[in-house]
Description:
alpha+beta; 2 helices; Acetone carboxylase
Amino acid sequence: MTDTPLARPAPPICSARGCQAPGVWALRWNNPRLHDPDRRKTWLACPDHRGSLGDFLDARGFLREVAPVPPSPTLDDVDEHSEVTG
């Protein structure tokens, strides 16, 4: 057994092209021509892109719901128990 530290999970990232900011909003959508009414796909958005991504989906009649992304117990656990070494 090795004492290799676990890799830190990557935080959720905004779905806007080229954006690397944390995704803090879940834009839940579906395309009624392709998806069952209950199916939801999710794009993540940072505060700067929530409006533009939401407007894009809404203009096409795809946007169903916008909700805050819940905190990750896994990421929170890593933050609380990580040690600074060096």
